[in-house]
Amino acid sequence: MSTMQARILHRPIERDWREVYAFASKPENMPRWASGLAAGFTRDGEDWIADGGPLGTIRVRFAPPNTFGVIDHTVTLPTGAVVENTFRVVPNGDGAEVMFTLLRQPGMDTVAFEADAAHIARDLETLKQLMENGEETSS
Fold first, then answer.
1. Which residues, listed in sequence order, are joined to residue 98 by a DSSP beta bridge?
2. Looking at residue 3, what DSSP letter applies?
3. Would you list the domain boundaries of the chain?
4. What would the pLDDT profile of 7-20 be if each residue is shown by its tens digit?
5. pTM, whole model, 2 decimals?
């Protein structure tokens, strides 16, 4: 068994971690900050279907709502490949820290890995800005 190269991308957010989790964990809100999902989601049973852009149609299954800040999700690509994503919101003082663990997938070159990391960093920054600018968690 081998491990994959990993990079943890994170951002502090000046807002209560529970409010950040409540907003970020709703698939309906994700197109507002996760640019890869800008076209939005359609619910399909326990899964969500999205246009993954150049990846094609993707199927996403999220961890159930929880009190631990876990927004892990499994993405099934059109090829049938499954990518496990770990995404957490944790307390950081009076605010939050959001953390996404990016794993370099088999066959992914350095350029693609770095582009993925930059993309995720931008999305986390967008989430930070939304939350710090008073985005309502009930949206």
1. 11, 89
2. P
3. 6-132
4. 999 999 999 999 99
5. 0.89
